[in-house]
Amino acid sequence: MCGIVGYIGHREAYPIIIKGLKRLEYRGYDSAGLVLYDGKDLKLCKTKGKVSDLEEKVAKEISTEGHIGFGHTRWATHGVPNDVNSHPHFSNSGKLAIVHNGIIENYEPLKKELIKRGYVFHSDTDTEVLINLIEDVQKTDNLKLGKAVQVALNQVVGAYAIVVFDVNKPDELVCARLGSPLAIGIGEDEYFVASDASPFIEFTSNAIYLEDEEMAIIRLNKPMKVRKIKDDSLVDPYVQELQMNLEQIEKGGYEHFMLKEIYEQPNVIKDTYRGRLLANKGIIQMSGVEDNLEKFTNAKRILIIACGTSWHAGLVAEYVIEEFARIPVEVEYASEFRYRNPIINKDDVVIAISQSGETADTLAAIKLAKENGAFVFGVCNVVGSSISRETDAGAYTHAGPEIGVASTKAFTTQITILTLIALRLAKAKGTMNQSDYQRYLLELEMIPEKVQEALQTNDVAKQIAEIYKDVPNALYLGRGFNFPVALEGALKLKEISYIHAEGYPAAEMKHGPIALIDEQMPVIVIAPNKGHYDKVVSNIQEIKSRSGKIIAVVTKGDTQVKALADHVIEIPETSEALTPLLTTIPLQLLSYHIAVLRGCNVDQPRNLAKSVTVE
Ligand code: F6R
């Protein structure tokens, strides 16, 4: 939620900020703004709309000189997206400027108090309250900027990543974090600050990630100082070497990031199991699992917590872990789990799944599970993210940056890693015979090739999209391992094309949704030739006899469903438990093409943000 980019150094700050904001637009894109200081004037430009709108406005309104500045791309929390509510915000004196990602929960009492003290507010934001609180503290106690920020933050309840500038300290940026990420890139005589490292990877590969309740004072030509906000103690920050490269965060010839990321799946699934799956030797090795194998095998229950698409991956894992390792699994929405006084036992293993590693509800659920003594294992994509640091152990999915707001490759790589875990546990617990175990390992190794083949359904998916692009509703049905895929298919369609879609277990259709079916209603049925195939065929008959339009995802060579369905999309054969890795692909493509044909902004759907760092 919201992206921040700041720069201080010898280069012109503007190109770095504007390019960086474009890279961070996945975090929010309802308004954008920036400040630049040229040694004399503090120049502000902000606007409702996207970073490209900001760029146009800057060209008309301000000069872009300056070696220090910062910008913001917003996902509104307090106050509608408009020019005034956009960041940066100034203090009443006009001397302090701030950008903020997060929510100040106690902004109302703070604001009332500041109004009593004569402060005037122009926006509806909590951020403007914070910058005036900093100014008030600074004036009242005659403090330097860093100290004033620290004192003010100690009065604040909520979450924040902030960067603050004071015209009276023009060679300094002060930044701080609690609950929202902030990375600081360290170059030669220059520093970069950003919500993730993508805005500065072409300039430096050295970065530190501020921890919660830490602040940094960044001064030109001086070593950076990192302190604990609460007790002022100095911290020796860990300087990480970044793994990301420029190519990974650019579109590489594809029209949209989403399409690029769909097509990356064969490679990233391979990256996920590289070094972990040694199929010919019958070995699965993941240090996070090996080091804690007893905890996993002794677990009375595995609790999976996640949100959105990651929650759907968790549901697939429920089927796979229970089937392979015979450990009971419960899958919870993190947002519900954290507030419903859940029963957590010391011998529970909690698996938290998150692409971004920053989802506020998942992070809070992890903290709750840890407080109750559970061992928490993270499955994250973003290296060094808050969740990866908060968990006791974990495994990265290695999907590379996912920039399209709709999650695609994160989902299939999450399923891959969770399947590896299920197989490793099955071996350790002896719940699967050796020949099945070996067969699964070899089949898993062949999945990238089969995903590649499944991607050849692109043309068929596009043709089907042409036919159904204007429907108001769609129903997705699947059973067993493919029930979560039905949910995921429906989520993909609604979030990027704004068509109302629902996913259901196919057999549940009779208990209500069947009433929706008429000749207008496309029903996407996931019907691979395994598991409950015959039952799904019966469900298809039921739809057919009510004139519903059937789009079926079937295994290559299928004849029975083909004879009944209006359209079929064929995927290669694999074991039932691995089918979600293949059935997902045409559903992603179908949603993509429908959204493109409807003229929707595929990579940045309305109202959404990639990283949900507010609850
Ligand atoms: C949907 C989507 C979201 C995320 C959810 C959790 O395409 O991307 O539903 O899956 O916001 O995000 P992470 O996995 O980053 O915790």
UniProtKB/TrEMBL annotation:
GO terms for molecular function: glutamine-fructose-6-phosphate transaminase (isomerizing) activity. Residues 2-221 form the Glutamine amidotransferase type-2 domain. The keyword Plastid does not apply. Pfam families: GATase_6, SIS. It catalyses: D-fructose 6-phosphate + L-glutamine = D-glucosamine 6-phosphate + L-glutamate. Residues 292-431, 464-605 form the SIS domain. Its main location: cytoplasm. The active site is at residues 2, 610. It is found in: Cytoplasm. Keywords: Aminotransferase, Cytoplasm, Glutamine amidotransferase, Repeat, Transferase. Its EC number is 2.6.1.16. CDD domains: GFAT, SIS_GlmS_GlmD_1, SIS_GlmS_GlmD_2. PANTHER family: GLUCOSAMINE--FRUCTOSE-6-PHOSPHATE AMINOTRANSFERASE, ISOMERIZING, GLUTAMINE--FRUCTOSE-6-PHOSPHATE TRANSAMINASE (ISOMERIZING). Homodimer. Catalyzes the first step in hexosamine metabolism, converting fructose-6P into glucosamine-6P using glutamine as a nitrogen source. This is Glutamine--fructose-6-phosphate aminotransferase [isomerizing]. It comes from Flavobacterium bernardetii. The gene is glmS.
